[in-house]
Amino acid sequence: MQVLKKQDAGASLPMDLGLLEGTFVMPTGRLKPSLLSEPRRRLALEWYLIKKKPRPKLGLRRSKISARPRNERLRWTLRKFTRAPKFVSHRVAILPYKGSALRQVVVRMQSLQSLGRYVSGGPGRPEALVKGTGNEKAVTEYLVLQRRVWKEVEEPWMIWGTTEETDPNTVLGLNTPAPATVEAKSR
User: Fold this and answer.
1) Residue 137 contacts by C-beta under 8 Å, 6 or more apart in sequence?
2) What is the pLDDT of residues 45-75, one digit of tens each?
3) What is the dihedral of CA 31, 32, 35, 38, to 10 degrees?
4) For labelling, which of 10, 56, 146, 160 has a CA lying 20 to 30 Å from the CA of 22?
5) Are 80 and 109 a contacting pair, CB within 8 Å?
6) Contact 24/89 with Cβ under 8 angstroms?
7) DSSP-based three-state secondary structure for 2
8) What is the DSSP letter of 62?
9) 32 contacts 41 by C-beta, under 8 angstroms
10) SS3 of residue 3 by DSSP
């Protein structure tokens, strides 16, 4: 934000300012401390959720795209939503320009999906599904949506990207790693 303050007020604001500081996604499953075995840690997380104390959080995330052979194609399929989407975080940042702000919401979506890899069989031959791909998988994703208000004019919502559950140790200021987990985006 300091860089923005130094820029000319007439300059345009970048669309991607990263995930807003203090964004908190309550851990679930094995990452969430038990109320019975770790009551202090659990209550500290619940208190943090209520108070939403801003703390340094993830900055700009970059995705990796793997190179794949020319004759290979991926087909993603959403089979069904297993639960209704749910808002799990809502943050607003006032920008250093009059009448300007940035709003982000995080939505948890749980669904059954499949990702199949197909290899071309050559000219005139059908594509073949690569063995071991295309299986249904339960997936939990945290989608970040963003809306900018620029000089008192609201812009449309846009997809910023995805994030993960907050590591309880990050919130509680502990240096110990979180317990071993299954893949971050699946259950």
Assistant:
1) 112, 113, 114, 115, 186
2) 777 766 664 443 333 333 334 566 778 888 8
3) 40
4) 10
5) no
6) yes
7) helix
8) -
9) no
10) helix
Q: Quick check: 16 pLDDT over 70? A: no
- 97-139 pLDDT, tens digit per residue, is 888 888 999 999 999 999 999 988 778 888 888 999 989 999 9
Q: Which two tokens stand for residue 132?
A: 């071991």
DSSP state of 170: H
Question: What's the CA gap between 157 and 106, in Å, rounded?
Answer: 12
Residue for token pair 């202090």 = 40
Cα(145)–Cα(104) distance, integer angstroms:
6
If you ran DSSP here, which 8-state letter would residue 156 be given? P
Tell me the residue type at 65: I
Report d(CA 156, CA 147) in Å as an integer. Answer: 6
Non-local CB neighbours of 65 within 8 Å, separated by 6+ positions: none
Phi, psi of 169, deg, nearest 5: -65, -30
How far is Cα 186 from Cα 166, in angstroms, rounded to an integer? 15
Is-above-0.85 flag for pTM?
no
- Exposure of 45 in the CB half-sphere (CA atoms within 13 A): 21
